[in-house]
Fold this protein.
Amino acid sequence: MQVTLRLGVGLGGQPWWPPRTVDMEDGATLADLLGRLEEPVRADLLQPHVLVIVNGRRFDQSEAAHRTLRDGDVVAVVAATAGG
């Protein structure tokens, strides 16, 4: 199965990450995908301002092990920002 992974600006100390297609085993969970991220990005996942979104719905880290991925899912990992 394939999912699209989009990483937000600034994660892992990188100014920009291109979207990428990730091959996953059938039955893989969101936690499985997040565990495959590069180390600097995995460290950012511990920050409270980093959001994980699947097909437009936000998931907490505690929910990641229970969210089974499906072919065609779009997963975004972004740093929330504030402004005005």
In short: The chain has a mean pLDDT of 89. Residues 2-79 form a domain with the Ubiquitin-like (UB roll) fold (CATH 3.10.20.30). The radius of gyration is 12 Å. The first helix runs from residue 30 to 35.
